[in-house]
Amino acid sequence: MLFRVSSASLRGRTFLLICGLTVLVLVGIAGMHSFDYGYFAPTSGSTSGSSVGVNVPPARSSFDSYLQKLHRNMHWEDLQAYCSQDKFSPEFVKSVERRYTNITHGGMEPVFVAINLYNNEKVLPNMATQLLALADTLGHSRIFISIYENGSEDRTKEILHRFNETLNALNIAHRIVTDPTPKPKRVHRIEYLAKVRNSAMEPLYSSGEKYGRVAFINDVHFCLTDVLELLFQSRAQGAHLTCAEDFVEWNGGPGFYDTWVARDIKGKMFEKEMHKITKDDISMAAQVRDRPFQVQCGWNGMVIIDAKVFRGEGGLRFRRSAKGECSASECSLFCNDLWRKKFNRIVMVPRVKLAYDTAIRDMLRKPINFPADIPYNPPEVEKISFRSGPETVFCRPLKNPITDIQDDPDEWVKL
């Protein structure tokens, strides 16, 4: 399927065609050597606005055809993005266009996209498609895509090789690194995850460019509008970190996944049940109405981070716990560091619900789980009244380097 981007980017049905492309899975041979494709910066003739014209670039057509051909040969599962055109009315299309105008027409600072991958051949085709749509929407010169992959034994490296070629041809700034080295068995899980996250972030750490926001995306099924809504809320709420909600199968339906990291504004763990996700009354009132609310911490598959938290002396980095500190996730520690530096506007956005497999992805699109007031009503932002937050936060430590199961008593950590 070839796709087009209109001269006004998010115009009518073309916008949903981008987001609703059939997502197809590839086949290839994983590389045997570490390969850094290097930094690619756009040339002086790169696209600066949100329009890339009405004609499909040859590189884009070739990449899309490649996906389709390999999908037909392998007969793998159809991974069509869940926000396809037939799901929504023209009224929805217009409301989306109105909502994101300030993002898609040059109003958003350049965005740095960071991704870690490992054996992700089933989510990567959709991810690549939506990232290309995001680049079209923001403008090719207003995005940097950084991907660090290592240890994959499936077709992830092959897909990334083709994606790198496509980004080169489309003049989209990026850095893609593929590394055959898996996680060493005796290295602590959190130490390792912090390292690979920092590897994905390295171009931002070393660059003099001042990106406005970082979009860190996990191995989830997502759509263009999911990224746009998080960017929208990040900007509208003046948030330092803005996160989605992620779900897996639980009791026959979607259950909230990232309970190890996510903490409500009182520092307590979230619950698995979507409609009883927190015991904080203010947060729960927002959750049932699919409105954003303040939390102490969240990651949940996708986050938008204000890039200023990484800058200057003492700029934040992902890390493992220090001696005597509760051995929490690198994402939990990142949130705690945000609070200690007074970057405490952390927001969870229930409208953006993500999944790690297609079955839960499709469940999340059912009316009982999808926001009932789509199209957006009211279209303006409901501002969060930010609270001072907790003095302590609940921690479930992970100290053993060869397990991902809690192995020490729970504790409350002082912020």
UniProtKB/TrEMBL annotation:
Which superkingdom does the taxonomy of this entry point to? Eukaryota
Short name of one Pfam family: CAP59_mtransfer
User: Which InterPro entries has this protein been placed in?
Assistant: Mannosyltransferase_CMT1, Nucleotide-diphossugar_trans
Protein name, as recorded: Glycosyltransferase family 69 protein
